[in-house]
Every structure is written in structure tokens, then in C-alpha cells.
Amino acid sequence: MNTVIHRAALYGHHNRIREMLAAGIPADARNDYESTPLHLAARSGKTRAMRVLIDAGADVNARGSDGNSPLHRAVELGSIDAIRILVAAKADPNARNAHGLTPLHIAARNGKIGVTKAVLAAGADPLATSNGGEAPLDMAKSAVKEILVAAMVAKERDLLAADAGPRGEPASRRRRI
């Protein structure tokens, strides 16, 4: 069951949220599903309510009973504005829910190109695997597969470059002195 501040967040009543916060209601109040008002505002794309809650100190990485963060919820909705607000407030783009799914897994599964690009730009790991061993590419709709493959290639290239020696050879091939 949602509290009054949860309902205000869900419907975007940002001025009412300000009043409740001023009256001492915590920004991170939990409902029966362990969701915070920020989860509900993100899930419904109510960006003004999100900003009010974040400015009041709401935890952008709070987890509900299913392990989803507000960023997971914004990605489910497909709100790029909500995603950007959360990322700017330091939401973890690699947060995992109870199934080990990251926001990128959800974006790929939903097949939304703009959302997938936004989550990748936020630093999401295209190589992350779920509890079942699935990478975002495994869950991707065809529309986002090309974007994910390009991100995976770039990540692999970065990993190889970090492992390369001064002459560009992998650590496993360098001579030991």
C-alpha cells in the first residue's frame, strides 16, 4: 500500500511533496513493496517530483523488494529525461535487481533504442550477465542488437588496451625479466 507521499510522487504532485517533506515525512519512506517515492516518480516519469525528492536527499540507488532501483523503473517506462536526472544524481547504471538484471538488460529487452543508448552513455556494462547468465544482447530485441554489439566491441577493446604492455602486446605475451 502506498503512503500519501508515494501517491503524490506517482501523480507528480511536486508542490504537495514539498509540503510533506517540510512537515517531516522522509523522502525515502517505504511502501509495502519497499519502494520509495522516487521509485514511483521514476516509474511514472514525473521528473519535477523526482527533482524535489532528489534535492531532499532521496536515495537514487534505493532498492525495492524486487531489487529494482529508481533507474530500473525509469528504464521500464522508457523515460530518457528521468534516466538523465537519475544518472546526473549518481544512480548506478549497473545496479542489479533480484534476478541480476541491470537497467541495460531491461532496456534491451524492451527494444527501445534511445533508452538503450542513454543507459550505455551512463556507463552501463554491455557485458554484464544476469543470475541466469544472460547478457543484455541475449535479451535484446532486434532493434537494439546492433547498438549492443558495438558497445560490447568497444568494451572488449578497452579491456584489451588496459591489459596491453608498452608496445601494445597483451600481458600474457610479455617477456618476464
Provide a brief overview of the structure.
The protein has 177 residues and is mainly alpha-helical. 53% of the residues lie in helices and 0% in strands. α2 packs parallel to α4 and α7 packs antiparallel against α8.
Give me the secondary-structure topology:
Blueprint: H1 4-11, H2 14-22, H3 37-44, H4 47-55, H5 70-77, H6 80-88, H7 103-110, H8 113-121, H9 136-139, H10 142-163
Helix pairs in contact: 1-3, 2-4, 3-4, 3-5, 5-6, 5-7, 7-8, 8-10
Keywords:
Serine Threonine Protein Phosphatase 5, Tetratricopeptide repeat; 177 residues; 2 domains; mainly alpha
Please describe what this structure looks like.
- With 177 residues, this protein is mostly helical.
- The chain folds into two domains: 1-92, Ankyrin repeat-containing domain (Serine Threonine Protein Phosphatase 5, Tetratricopeptide repeat, Alpha Horseshoe); 93-177, Serine Threonine Protein Phosphatase 5, Tetratricopeptide repeat, CATH 1.25.40.20.
- Helices cover 53% and strands 0% of the residues.
- The chain contains ten helices and no strands.
- The protein has helices at residues 4-11, 14-22, 37-44, 47-55, 70-77, 80-88, 103-110, 113-121, 136-139, 142-163.
- α1 runs parallel beside α3 (37-44), α3 runs antiparallel to α4 (47-55) and α7 (103-110) runs antiparallel to α8.
- The N and C termini lie far apart (66 Å).
- The mean pLDDT is 91.
